[in-house]
Amino acid sequence: MRPDPSPSSATSGARSLRWVEQAYRLHYAYIYRALGRLGVPESRVEDALQDVFIVLHRRRADFEGRSSLKTWLYGIALRVARRYRERARRQREREAPLPERAQLVGGGPSGERAAERRQALERLDRILGAMEDTRREVFVLYELEGMQAAEISALLGVNRNTVYSRLRLARRDFARAVSRLGAQGGELRHG
Q: How far apart are CA 20 and CA 9, in angstroms?
């Protein structure tokens, strides 16, 4: 079941609430994952997720259907993630450094395979966390979420060439970080 993407579907009382509920059911896992990859501290991802859907509810009449609902939600998540990263940065400046985030590993592989996957996700998060924010955003959208440059350009409000430039720099940063990990014996495995 897909929420009706038309603006009229998001404007009337109970129907509007159902539209938001459907959007949540369809996209909460995607947005949860995206918030983590965009640098929201693990302890705050659920709060950030709630904020994304509160914004969706509040701004539902603004959805014009020019992009997919998923893309629109990602734009909201991107702005929410920026706020959470900024709050975390300010908190780190006021307090002692926070412990390193652990990654959630959903159901599936167990034992050694799950440990390997968790370690790979932790390495990926460290690499993404070290990237400059605008590069990380483009890298996550393109490489991990599979969006096209035109979608990213519209979502971020930047020129398509800027997207390609940031992606090139992010890929370079990523490759260098993976090389450093390999040299340190901490190979990054995919999967």
A: 10
Measure the CA angle with vertex 45, ends 93 and 162; round to 5°. Answer: 75
Residues 6+ apart with CB under 8 A from 178: 127, 188
- Out of 1.10.260.40, 1.10.10.10, 1.10.1740.10, 3.90.930.50, select the CATH number for domain 1-99: 1.10.1740.10
Domain residue limits, the chain = 1-99, 110-191
50-69 pLDDT, tens per residue? 999 999 999 988 888 888 89
CA 84 to chain centre: 12
pTM of the model: 0.59
Q: From CA 153, how far away is CA 164, in angstroms rounded?
A: 9
